[in-house]
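Let's do one together. I've listed all components of the complex below, 267 residues spread over two lines.
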Amino acid sequence: MIHSFSALIALFIFWLLLSGMYTPFLVAAGAGSAVAVLLIAHRMDVVDHEGHPIHLAWHAFFSYWPWLVKEIIFSAWDVSKRIWHPSLPISPSLAEFVPTQNTDMGLVIHANSITLTPGTISIEVAQGRFLVHALTREGAAGLAGSEMDRRCTSMEVK
Amino acid sequence: MSVVIDVLSALCLVAGSFFCLTGGIGLIRMPDFYTRMHAASIVETLGAGLILLGLMLEAGLTLISVKLAMVGLLVFFASPTASHALARAAFLRGLMPELAKAEDASSKP
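Okay, and this is what the predicted structure of the assembly comes out as:
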């Protein structure tokens, strides 16, 4: 119930922000569209803690995302330096390791964070097994039991 | 004040363009499919992020900035999913990555 309500509000705000024209007809059309989308989403059975994870929002906004942005900037800078370096100092490696998350949600957040960080791409993702391609040997070695792994797991239990 | 915003915005746009260029050059220099994807991920994170930030500074607190932020969120959620799908498809089709040999000298830039 709380998920439906929050999804409805989010959809309506999304319409209002994209539209920017607030005539009675358009606002009513927005409300109607929000309800229609919510009904379709209900038929698809995606309005739950996975499809609409509001319980993560607070922690994600104020703790995880800022940290992830910092990580992305550092690793993008590192990869950029390697690209401009005349001898192209890369050592592509595959790393297989066991993530500590238990839920699909936690695994998805961890795998997406790995891929979003330049220099590492998650290739295979399963419960208890990640296969990651890294641009450097150091990047591959730092994946198992990383700070990212710890943060994803702590977000999952919230 | 608006001069400060203009300068900050210009810096973000120039830096964003620089990282897009870096990603493009990396795409050409890298040896195989998987390493090329690493170069491309610079474009979609720092490149796109800095350009969007520069445009948002120029737009100020308006609906345009909100829409730019939505574009940023879309890129940040969709691009890792697409990259993962691409890498996984290549891997399942049997394209093995060229791996560095164990005795290679360490690769500090």
